Amino acid sequence: MHLLNVWAKLLEKWNCHFMNRRPLEFLSQIQTNISAIWIGHVSWTNLFHIGEDAPIICMDILSNGSDPCGTDDWVAVGDGKGRMMIAHIAGDVFSPKVDHHSLTWSAEIERQLLGTNWCKSLGFRFIFTVDPRGRLKLWRVCNSLSSASHVEAAYHPELVYEFVSCFGMRIICLDASLKDEVLVCGDIRGNVLLFPFKENVLYTTPIPLEEKVSPQAYFKGAHGISTVCSISIAGSVPSQLDLHSSGGDGCICYFEYDRNRKKLEFTGIEQVKELSTVHSVYSSANYNDNMPRGSYAIGFASSEFIIWNLSSERKVLQVSCGGWRRPHSYYLGHSPEMKNCFAFVKDGIINIQRYWVTENERKMYPKNLHLQFHGREIHSLCFIQPSCSPNGKGCYSFESSWIATGCEDGTVRLTRYEPETESWSVSMLLGEQVGGSAVRSLCTLSKIHRILLKATDVSESVHRQMGNSEDQDNLVILVSVGAKRVMTAWKQKPRSIYETIESQCCEHDNKGGDTSRGSPSSKHFSLLSFQWLSSDMPARKNNCLHENTKNIIEAVENDTPLSSEDKKMESKLDRCENDWRYLAVTAFLAKGSGSKATVCFIVVACSDATLSLRALILPHRLWFDVALLTPLSSPVLALQHVIVPKHLLSEDIIQMGNLYIVISGSTDGSIALWDLTEHVESFMQLLPSLEMVESIDDQKRPRTGRGSQGGRWWRSLGSHVSKKKSACGNDDAPSVYVKEKKRNVSSLDIYEIGPLHVFNNTHQSGVNCLHVSNVTMPTASDSVFGFCVVSGGDDQSLSCLSFDFTSIENLELSTLEHIVSFQLQSYQMRLVLVDKIPSAHSSAVKGVWTDGRWAFSTGLDQRVRCWKMEQGKLIERAHLVISVPEPEALDVRPLDRNRYQIAVAGRGMQMVEFFALARTQ
């Protein structure tokens, strides 16, 4: 029966032009212990013979798919004696034969040759061999003048490179790029390594035996302790290289190699929960409407072989084969849903399962009826304003929108809305919170605010305001917070990076010359791309253990059981700690003059009624606790911030910094203002006094996947620095350690910030949402800055607070009456107007947004209401019943002065477009 299966495979190759995989690959894997490789249909054909004194240990094939009706394969095998043999298999698919001479040489000593790898980018002239101690050898098997039709029998293979892993673990997979001059490898213990790879060395004289190449960068435990099954170079630009790998932990990991810093950084992870082991990732190349381009994860779950569509999140193929330890192979066509083939060996029988539908036979391509989306309630959403290239080109369509959503299922997704078709065109999984914890709040930030660290930096500020600065910061960050006090930061990738990757994929996938599938649609090149930046989750503290240490010690010493009260207290405290969650977040970016580091200041509210100011230092990915905002009598549900420019008191208005004001809304119905300016500036002053020393051995990745190392590195200004550790040492070392340079940081405590002012009883119950907007756009020449805060609460009401900042020297010129006023440095802040709509909705208000001209709100009554703001008063102009049950969040994107896109999310998501007619109409 197995012979008939093999014959069917050969017929399939002839009819469907399977060019890149041969039955040879399937059959060879069950012949490794009898020292021979065979091919055939009814009878076996002996292609070449190494010897009977040692079994075949490893094999790899390099295929040339240029001839659809012929065989053009390079086969390399290694045996237990350390010998390598290479042969060129050519001819008809039914009668392949070894072309000319095969090549044999001794690559390792006995029992030390465990693997061999071709690299497609290097061609048939070079091959790698692997030993068990992490050494990788590159051999030149023929000279540069040899043609692909034969191998010179007299040519003796030469050792060109010898790469040595610092981990001493066997290399499993690799990829190389001559253009980028790098070699990337993955080993059996989850480590990823990057070696320098000079093209000019390939054709020079062999290296001395004592010369070995060490890794230029590496990432320890990229897949935990699980094997790295595949690794590839996804794309490159002059300053960086993008890599991705798959492993035995069921994850796909993404990396970025910075050429300038020579550092390999973790940029993202995708856990394929349906697979326990991801062997490889496959990308199809179909750009027409019938067969869209997509990515597929190929791997195993227990005893099942599974092909999983990562784009549509559905299963393509499932075969019971006994698991990944059985010899197996597969081949996928341009559309794996219509063209796939899998072979495995069981009980000495080759089993082949194939599904191959040609273009002529295909009638309909299977498609999802709907885009994949969240499966539970959405708690937060925000529009993403994509970054543009410095020359202003490459921006997205003006009306198409990207929306980030955070859900109870613990995921963050990016969804694109196309107004032309009035539909959602793309929905992509951005990532998952640590442990799948629910996402409660999102915020996006892009503008970097400058802070002058010393008086001599005034000239730099003048240059920047006059447009003479060459510094073009183009940074978009998305922050998500939620259950288990998990905080994650995501960074938008520069358009040049992922457009280059897309174009390289397109070129690679269309090398066969088949242009019938059409040219890439422009919408495929406008996909927004984010990468994981950093995650933070405070180390769990067992308070009960600390409080009852004495009781526990006494119980152990006296050999008596722990009291029931102690057990109940421990269980209660553990439950309370697990139940803490972040409820709201707001953030802004700051950069000191002359500093290379950018600081992301994050204000986050927790369910234990704490409000804290945190700092994430980039690019070092260090977390710091800066200050606590206290006292708070109840948890905060909503956060916003406003930044007011500070000016130098002179005839020439020069911006000298900013005022940083945070606005919070609590469950008791109060709204509070907090001034962070002093503490933000103090932290930025402290930053240059710390020397950031990079340590490459201890990068962190999110704690996701089986065997992942994760990372909880979190510090405050009061908890100082760990010592530097050895290169391949402890996994728990921080990725960057901070060394004292000028002052003793460990002596500093976490500061406490009191409220600037509290507006009590703004709402009768919880402030569910609030939004702040400037009434008049602040510029450097303005002396008065007006802002309004619109809030919504459980009491079904909307409240509007209008306040302004007036410079003290111009205070006498102001004639506005005010309710409350207080001084902030060179400004006088005054509350000038309060307006309240008691029954704005017939149920609790859940979302609100304003730009100072219009305000939009939504509530549990499933209404979106549009309010015109006239002289600080809210006047309802329109309302609409929406289809989203239990709305939880609202965000708005202005298209022009009186045109808006309104996104509402809850148990689903809906887009509403609002256009205000002229008053005369």
UniProtKB/TrEMBL annotation:
GO cellular component annotations of the record: cytoplasm
Keyword Ligase tagged: no
Locations listed in the record: Cytoplasm
GO terms for biological process, alphabetical: tRNA methylation
WD repeat ranges, renumbered to this chain: 662-676
Main location: cytoplasm
Pfam families on file: WD40
InterPro entries named among the record's database cross-references: tRNA_Anticodon_Mtase-Reg (IPR051973), WD40/YVTN_repeat-like_dom_sf (IPR015943), WD40_repeat_dom_sf (IPR036322), WD40_rpt (IPR001680)
Entries under SUPFAM superfamilies matching the protein: WD40 repeat-like (SSF50978)
Entry similarity comment: Belongs to the WD repeat WDR6 family.
Name of this protein: Uncharacterized protein
Species whose genome carries this gene: Cuscuta campestris
